[in-house]
Design a protein that fits this description.
The chain is mainly alpha-helical and about 90 residues long. The protein has three helices and no strands. The chain has a domain of about 35 residues. About 65% of the residues lie in helices and about 0% in strands.
C-alpha cells in the first residue's frame, strides 16, 4: 500500500492573511476617503451671491459721496473680486 501525503491548508483566520487585507482594505480606504471629501465639500461650500442684491448695493454705493462711498465699495470688494476671479483665467505674475 502506498502512502500519499496530502498537505492540508493551514487553518488561520481570514484577518491574519495579508492578501485579504488588500482585498478588503483598499475599497474601505476608498470609501473612507470619498466620505471625507464629501464632508469637506458640503461643509466648506461658498455661499452663492445674489446678483440682484449685489447690483442694487453697487448702484447705491455709487450714489454716495466721500468716505461713505469708499466704505460701501470696500464692503462689496470681496464679491467683486470673486466674480472677476471666476470669470477670468489665472495669469501668472512675471
Amino acid at each position: 500500500m502506498s502512502s500519499i501525503h496530502t498537505s492540508h491548508p493551514s487553518s488561520t483566520a481570514w484577518w491574519r492573511t495579508p492578501q485579504m487585507w488588500l482585498v478588503v482594505g483598499a475599497p474601505l480606504v476608498g470609501v473612507a476617503a470619498s466620505l471625507t471629501a464629501a464632508f469637506f465639500a458640503i461643509n466648506g461650500a461658498d455661499p452663492v451671491l445674489n446678483k440682484a442684491d449685489y447690483q442694487r448695493d453697487y448702484k447705491a454705493a455709487h450714489e454716495l459721496q466721500g468716505q461713505a462711498r469708499i466704505d460701501a465699495l470696500a464692503k462689496l470688494q470681496p464679491a467683486h473680486q470673486a466674480r472677476n476671479n471666476a470669470a477670468s483665467p489665472v495669469i501668472p505674475a512675471e
